[in-house]
Amino acid sequence: xxxxxxxxxxxxxxxxxxxxxxxxxxxxxxxxxxxxxxxxxxxxxxxxxxxxxxxxxxxxxxxxxxxxxxxxxxxxxxxxxxxxxxxxxxxxxxxxxxxxxxxxxxxxxxxxxxxxxxxxxxxxxxxxxxxxxxxxxxxxxxxxxxxxxxxxxxx
Length: 155
Prior knowledge:
Elements: E1 2-5, E2 7-8, E3 13-14, E4 21-22, H1 24-32, E5 39-43, H2 45-48, E6 56-58, E7 60-67, E8 72-79, E9 83-86, E10 89-98, E11 107-115, E12 123-131, E13 145-153
Parallel strand pairs: 1-5
Antiparallel strand pairs: 2-3, 3-4, 6-10, 7-8, 7-13, 9-10, 10-11, 11-12
């Protein structure tokens, strides 16, 4: 097993990669290559930094909905497993997760949205993860309504 010693200085990271100073993206690329190079561990201050394995689950989410015809917005909190109505839509929250406080802020919610028009059979409109920081990444496409995630709620 081979180890690499990584030391830190206030403005740069110095490592044994060809004796050159390694910064930002170059260091990240080098660290990602460790398993491919057969290197399995680091020692030094960089090795002690906590690396979160997963996002933290929360019991509820704060969502915002827009009726494009009337231009009315509504903000509401919904618990995991709960279903709320927005016009003809029925929104069910299946999960809400957020990054730990030491990470870049990000909230993701898994939503199932069904449109239930009177006199017609219910039709699925959306099922998937929505991200608060990038609402267009996984947006619900509907001619009348928009729904997006604002944040997770609860401890």
